[in-house]
# Entry
Amino acid sequence: MNDETEFAPAARASAATLTRQIALACSHPAITTLLESVAAALAILNPERQIVGSNLAYLELVGGESPLGLRPGESLDCVHAQRGPNGCGTGRICLTCGAALAILSALREARPAELECALRRRRGEATEDLAMAARAVPFSVEGESLLLLVLKDISQEKRSAGLRRIFLHDLNNLLVGIVNASEELSGISGTDELAREIHLIAARMTRVIALERAFAEDPTRCRACPERVSLRDEAAVLGRLVARHPAAANKTLSCSLPEGAIEIETDAVVLERVVLNMLLNAFEASAEGSEVALKVEEGEQECTVSVWNRGRIAPEVQARIFQRYFTTRPGLDRGQGTFAIQHLGEDTLGGRVGFTSGEEGTTFWLTLPRRFPRSPAPRAQP
# Structure
């Protein structure tokens, strides 16, 4: 790395070289046939990662503006494209960009490379998250080294896979509660309290199903059903739900709660969804024998629920932690959890979500007003 870049090379082709490469890409029969024959979004890049040719699908993807001379992230309006000292690929955050990594690998290894890319782009006032499969294929024409970049939108596949994973996980957690309570009922007299707990869990199952369906189709459809909620009771419920989860095996959960009922007005099901995600993420990031801490702090106007674990999030990952589809783990069903934490916590519950990560460990927190805001303020876009 140097002053001109924090990741990929910063240099761009000279005007004369770029003009020659664009003319070649626009006139060579093999290239033009390729661009006209494939329905996916295609762009031809030079060794400096600038676009020298593209097909109609790529033009539609970038909104109709000519992408020639730009790098992919610049043409796609990636919100991170200008964070580096010399545009797309030169910022530290680009270390986590699948498209940039595929392009650099193909250039370096002289062979095709394909990775998933979580793209957040801004068009006017609107911000959009896309999941893309990025494939880079090096080739040579008339002595000119070029690169074919193929972009495929896999957002719908990711949403569908994420819905299946989230739904099954949450349904399984609730079913565990039902099974455990049912086992205790066997042969025990005076079972009214346990029966009420089973009824409560079953009722919440229907809410979870409706919530997950709405979240997968369109997160803005998620609506809260506020009620009086005891955070002490919720902490107890979450402790029981997470205790038997495989991610918590051979690990411990500690709880720190202030005295009193700690009641607030919020949606209990959505709150459980957010905090359960925090807990499971913390357990998944923790080694065997380690501790995860759940803490509730009470204020006059607000209450904060936080989850801590000993792990540390890499700096280049922190900037994307709430970006939909971004994940450090393989699989179509990944990249939804932390996005859901922020979206549900802020846009549905009207609270604030954040995290800190460093030598002392990682803490995710959710701060909620004691009284549910009837018109939650829209979350500021990053």
